[in-house]
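Teaching assistant here, posting this on the class forum so everyone can see the example we discussed in section. The complex has two components, and the goal was to see what a joint structure prediction looks like when all of them are supplied at once.
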Amino acid sequence: MAKTYDYLFKLLLIGDSGVGKTCVLFRFSEDAFNSTFISTIGIDFKIRTIELEGKKIKLQIWDTAGQERFRTITTAYYRGAMGIMLVYDITNEKSFYNIRTWIRNIEEHASNDVEKMILGNKCDMNDRRQVSKEKGEALAVEYGVKFLETSAKASINVEEGFISLARDIKAKMDRKLEASNPSNRTAHQLKNEPSKKSRKWSCALL
Amino acid sequence: MEESVTRKFVHEESSTITSLCGAVEACLLHGLRKRSLGLFKNSTTTALLQKINKNCPPATEVLRVLGQVEQNNDNLKKSIDSNRNQTSLSNRKTQYNPKYLWIRIALFEKQLAKILEYLVTNSSKYYEKDALMTDPCDGPTFSTLLVGPCALDYTRMKTPDHFWTDPPADELVQRHRIHSSAHGNHQMRSDSPKRPGLQVLPVRRHTSSSSEESARTVLTSAKEYVESLHQNNKSTLLYGKNNVLVQPREDVEPLAGYLSLHQESAGLSVKWTPNQLMNGCCDKEQDEESADRSLFWDFAVTVYIDEIVYLHCHQRSDTGGTIVLVGQDGVQRPPIHFPKGGHLLAFLSCLENGLLPHGQLDPPLWSQRGRGKVFPRLKRKGSRLSSAASAGSGHSEDEATDYVFRIVSTFRPENLPTLQWASSQGSRPPVPEVIATPPPPSVSSLDEAMDINGDVDEATEGHRSAVKMLCDTMRRQILSRAFYGWLSHCRHLKTVRTHLSGLVNNVIVAVDDPSDASGGLSAELWAEMSQGGVVKDKGNIYRLVYYGGCVHEVRKEVWPYLLGHYAFGSTEEERVEHDDHVKQQYERTMSEWLAIEAIVRQRDKETMAANLAKLSQESQDMIPLVRKDSSLSNDAELLDSVALNLHRIDKDVQRCDRNYWYFTPTNLDKLRNVMCTYVWEHLEVGYVQGMCDLVAPLLVIFDDEAKAYSCFCHLMKRMSSNFPHGGAMDQHFANMRSLIQILDPELFEHMHQYGDYTHFYFCYRWFLLDFKRELVYDDVFCVWETIWAARHISSRHFVLFLALALVQYYRDIIMDNNMDFTDIIKFFNEMAERHNAKQVLQLSRELVYKLQDLIDNK
């Protein structure tokens, strides 16, 4: 079978049980919403190919079980991940506080340079909101990662989130490639660096 | 129709949708009063839709979308190019086959059921008296049936490229079906694994009669060949030595060349390349060289070790020694002359290591402290055999330094006595027949042969006796092969017995003794066996359920026995008493946690309202706690723990099998009660995801909380150790590894090579939930009762064999598509609820039997 993509990125979805990881993934991979999903047991993944800067990028997104009991099993998948999406539920304060635990978990088990992003899901349910958007943004700034409030149900920001994460991974990859290939370094760096800086927090302030 | 209901989501362009729409159309046309529609030139059901437009809002909505789509269709025809790159929803709809177009749209817009309901209610206006829609029973049933499909979400996201890079599971299954039907094999798997489980890896390439030929066939291009000499991702270099002499052809002088030993996925191979080819750097005389080179390519030798049976080894004091490889066909490969300095032994040692773990040298090399590998001290026997074997070649050898090594597989599973169902496809005759012929050769019989040879005096007899001796030698070699085959088979069996005998029961319970059990436990049989209110013959009940399952109507009565809720032999009064007792206990436990729940609810409310994390001291004092000691800090801890568990249970109960008819809000409450009661009783473990999945089928069968609870407790005796706190899972994985190595070594090898997923993590959900998520409900029932009965009939680890059967069922697809770990995960996740449970069950029973038979056959 011919390779029909330029990059393969492995992403991972983590977060408390019931925050909507599977639904976020389903929205992104199938552009649909299903309210009858059963809890995830074990591990599953979905694939979607996107195009970034003229390159085809195949995203292989792994979905994990949320309950901390399964962490020993799910952490086995952290290592291969190039990007990790941390998901909490804006109507569930606890799931938000647990993001810290999840990040600690990543620091323990994932590779050091893994790209991270925080998603506050279920933002269509504003009437039951327990976590303000500002709190979510503050946490993201604290960890130096990007943040978006999403709704898998109303199809808000899901696509944007994954594409932003993929873009960051690609940028990191390109930088590494340049570093190891110094011949055309100067030209590229001049082009890339400023845009990178100005873009860094733009998503958090959407 | 059924498929679209049971599957969680369906692609809009799925063929299922087309057939569903076709069925709806046919139903709608049945008995339609055409006259009532007026003079519409359109297809009649569309006309019907237009007719009801005024009075039925959903129809209006559908017609509106239909209009848009048709408009777009027209636009598209006019300006295909401008629309091509847009991906808006309405544009994409233009791709649809206009057939059943309005029905499709109504389905995707979730209006179809409403329209049908309207038509049924007003059927007298549009339909004849005997029409399906007018029928008081069929009409409403028809419209209700479509409520399900209308509730589904239809996806249109899949881009075409996924189809090629990541073909979905059903596509793979389909491709396999097509490809295997070409070979006249319509089944997923040829009635047992394609190659009977226990078998050495089959021949992977055609065997050519001489090494020259095989070298030529393999040598597709010089570049490829040279690359193959190096270590690469496909092959590992085990040994390399320059200036090894080989006489590639009788008319050519021995040439010096580079000898190498490679380990490839297909096995070991020995290569020898003349120096003239290896030294590509000669600048001068290039013209001369290039003329010769083509000749040297012909001399290059490639020998596959799995085609080799014997390895003759001649040592002489003045050279480094010679090795002659003899193939299965009896043809000798060109002798390989080693330079002095122990190179021959080094080569043998590397070869021996490379043969592991599936093969070995016989006799094996001896390890000597300080010297490494040495030749075995079998001088007498070895030299006799070798001199006998090379009697025709006229060599005069030094007795002390000649050896014949056999290359043997450590086990020769094709020689194992195979089962009826496995041997039916023409496997070789089982070993016992072979070894029933005269015993293996001994030194004395060899001596006799020599003596006979010496006694012959007539010159003409000399030739004949040489031939006779050759025949004797061949006979002996055949016998010794059979003997060694049998020997390694015995060794292999010993391994099986030591490691795997614990996985199956010793006694084989037959399907047809005393009666044929393959029909399962029917209602009649059950009535007969439970006559008088006492069920005694538990052995037969287990046997019937194991071999044929249980008819659905009697599950409610049979399952409590299978799970241990009722005792076999109990009277009706005893059972009623037991049920009452269980019920009382259940209600008591429920009242305990309900009291705590009330506090938790109150606390949550207060937390929410006041946005405070802690309860006030007062409110805690006021509420009496029913359970455990009443010191304040402990109570707070208990409250926290219960609250946490309740929230988790709620979250999972709310999303448990919502696509299955049973789980209405009322019945979900029952599920929640059972779950909470169990967790309250096991608070130290707490609720773990997956427990709901295990309660659900029990509740469906019993529809009785107390009974479901009691049976769930019994079920959890076995299952709880599978959950993360238990540790049984790793044991399952380890057992899977051993089983598949023995029962399907080829597949094991594949799994090992493609990123090594012999850790079997992809079976995690299977074991955690007893395959509940892998199968549809009806099949879950059948598989579960088989697992419970298997404990008493064939194996208390039946789940292992089910898992093995599930893997083996698709083994050809797995291997043909070179699936790695991610492919396997994707494949089995997509195949969930789409397996043929009946065949998988049958295969797992066969696998148990196969292992039992292996162990039994001493």
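For the discussion questions: The longest strand of chain A covers residues 43-52. The helical segments of chain A are 21-30, 71-74, 93-109, 133-143, 158-180, 185-199. Think about how each of these relates to the inputs above.
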